């Protein structure tokens, strides 16, 4: 693995629905296919919204986790996903 391909991290803690999903979608639109984005947010709706947008837009939700009030997602941009 190339170490120059560090994941893009989005700190969206404190933002309310629909902003975490919108920021995630915009970030995915700006990166190359195969890029990993790590998203941290605190809005409980993100547990539904972010996995949904990843599936809808053709990306891979590689993992999701919760620690206290922080939801974390690891998303890989799809090869044929549109921006």
For the structure shown, list the relevant keywords.
83 residues, alpha+beta, four-stranded mixed beta sheet, 2 helices, 4 strands, globular
Explain this structure to me?
There is one protein chain. With 83 residues, this protein is α+β, with helices and mostly antiparallel strands. It has a single domain, classed as TusA-like domain (Translation Initiation Factor IF3, 2-Layer Sandwich). It contains 2 helices and 4 strands. Strands 1-2-4-3 form a 4-stranded mixed beta sheet, covered by helices on one side. The longest helix is centred in the N-terminal third of the chain and has 12 residues. It is globular. The N and C termini lie far apart (25 Å). The model has no long low-confidence stretch (mean pLDDT 92). It comes from Ancylobacter aquaticus. Pfam families: TusA (PF01206).
Short characterization:
InterPro entries: TusA-like, TusA-like_sf. This is tRNA 2-thiouridine synthesizing protein A. By secondary structure, the chain is α+β, with helices and mostly antiparallel strands.
CATH architecture: 2-Layer Sandwich
Mean pLDDT level: 92
Radius of gyration from CA coordinates: 12 Å
Largest sheet: 4 strands, mixed
- The assigned structural class equals alpha+beta
Count of alpha/pi helices:
2
Domain UPF0033: 10-34
Organism: Ancylobacter aquaticus
Pfam family, one: TusA
Family: Belongs to the sulfur carrier protein TusA family.
């Amino acid at each position: 693995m190339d170490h120059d391909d560090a994941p893009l991290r989005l700190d969206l803690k404190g933002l309310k629905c629909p902003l975490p999903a919108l920021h995630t979608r915009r970030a995915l639109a700006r990166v190359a296919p195969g890029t990993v984005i790590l998203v941290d947010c605190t809005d409980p709706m993100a547990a539904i919204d972010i996995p949904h947008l990843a599936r809808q837009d053709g990306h891979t939700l590689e993992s999701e986790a919760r620690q206290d009030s922080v939801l974390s997602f690891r998303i890989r941009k799809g090869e044929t996903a549109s921006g």
